Backbone:
């Protein structure tokens, strides 16, 4: 028998954990038994186990979110989902998320060990690859930068991963100002360093915010020639995906030859708009354009910023206009947002409980599939509403 592999079990059921431990005794060392799926991602990532057993009986939603992350970032980890019924929906979702197998409880020893062996025999899924999330709009002043900086913060807090915020508003970028960040390493510098770039050079050059995420700021002066061509920009972002878990890109509202290559490879494009007719109409046009060139609905999402319930253009009307569900909404929260921007702070610094901060945190959960630690479902109505929107979108995507 080959060496024992590392395994992590996530379950609240101690009897089950002991049972699995006993059955796996010749094959695996159980490194950790994390009781709560929320917040377990960073531990899993650190340990990078070969086997990950996920009990989905308590909180299937969070588990699938977690499984998605693991699938993406830990190519050597095999996921085995455990459940006490053969619910076809759950089986399909498990396999779609990348689980190697779905195991029925109570565990039958022989078929369980056979599943584990088969899972281990499957080859690695290839290189780890980060996810690019482009934040854009169709008009200025919609809240792109506000969302970008605070999403970087929340995604970093949730995942504990390597998160990079890129200010791609060359010349007019204000990420550095929003974060009160002194940075002398910009997108143009990175482009110049590309031929000799490695992990060391990248991380020693990037500016790190005290919140823990990295930022690549915009140059104050830019010579078009310095940006190279679209190939160079595409290559730069593909390289960044190798080193980062999440890359959040603040994009100017006019699509240009510089932004096209990023938009083209981004996993997600969030279009930010306020509840104002011309802005909403422009979003509809942009959606049409994305649809014409064949972008799937799953990639292009709409976020309504400065949302006011009493605004006469309601959620339903907007969804009808877009022929697409809203991905999320961010409340109108002038005092908190303005104060944070003026001080060069993140919302989480001094406006943690503000509506805008909570709404943006909820978007980070939608994007990562990870619930915040100690999250209380009953308290956060907005949060629940957002999740239900997301589930509808996810279900629609799954039906395809
Ligand atoms: N959720 C919000 N509530 C209230 N005001 C907001 C909100 N989001 C953004 N703002 C305001 O809108 C203005 C534009 O935001 P910004 O993030 O700079 O947009 P963009 O990057 O799209 O130009 C800022 O002055 C900010 O105060
Ligand atoms: Mg901006």
Residues:
């Amino acid at each position: 028998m080959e060496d024992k592999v590392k395994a992590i079990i996530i379950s609240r059921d101690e009897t089950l954990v002991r049972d699995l431990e006993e059955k796996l005794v010749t094959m695996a060392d159980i490194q950790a038994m994390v009781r709560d799926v929320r917040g377990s991602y960073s531990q899993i990532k650190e340990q990078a186990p070969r086997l990950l057993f996920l009990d989905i009986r308590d909180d299937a939603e969070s588990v699938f979110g977690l499984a998605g992350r693991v699938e993406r970032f830990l190519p050597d980890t095999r996921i085995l989902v455990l459940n006490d019924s053969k619910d076809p929906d759950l089986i399909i979702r498990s396999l779609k998320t990348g689980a190697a197998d779905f195991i029925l409880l109570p565990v039958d020893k022989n078929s369980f060990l056979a599943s584990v062996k088969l899972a281990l025999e499957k080859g690695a899924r290839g290189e780890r690859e980060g996810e690019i999330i482009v934040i854009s709009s169709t008009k200025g002043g919609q809240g792109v930068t506000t969302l970008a900086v605070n999403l970087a913060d929340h995604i970093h807090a949730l995942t504990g991963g390597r998160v990079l915020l890129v200010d791609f508003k060359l010349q007019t970028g204000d990420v550095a100002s929003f974060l009160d960040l002194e940075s002398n390493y910009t997108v143009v510098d990175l482009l110049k360093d590309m031929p000799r770039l490695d992990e060391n050079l990248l991380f020693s050059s990037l500016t790190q915010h005290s919140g823990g995420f990295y930022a690549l700021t915009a140059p104050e002066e830019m010579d078009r020639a310095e940006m190279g061509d679209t190939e160079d920009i595409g290559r730069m972002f593909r390289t960044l995906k190798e080193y980062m878990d999440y890359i959040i890109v603040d994009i100017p509202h006019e699509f240009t030859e510089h932004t096209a290559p990023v938009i083209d490879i981004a996993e997600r494009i969030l279009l930010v708009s306020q509840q104002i007719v011309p802005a909403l109409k422009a979003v509809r046009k942009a959606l049409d354009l994305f649809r014409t060139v064949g972008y799937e609905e799953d990639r292009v999402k709409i976020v309504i910023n400065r949302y006011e319930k009493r605004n006469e253009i309601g959620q339903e009307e907007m969804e009808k206009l877009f022929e697409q569900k809203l991905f999320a909404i961010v409340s109108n929260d002038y005092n908190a947002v303005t104060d944070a921007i003026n001080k060069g702070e993140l919302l989480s610094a001094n406006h943690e409980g503000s509506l805008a901060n909570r709404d943006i945190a909820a978007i980070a959960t939608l994007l990562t599939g990870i619930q915040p630690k100690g999250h209380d479902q009953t308290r956060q109505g907005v949060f629940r509403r957002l999740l239900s929107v997301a589930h509808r979108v996810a279900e629609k995507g799954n039906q395809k």
Summary: The two ends are 43 Å apart (CA to CA). The chain has two domains: 5-121, 131-399.
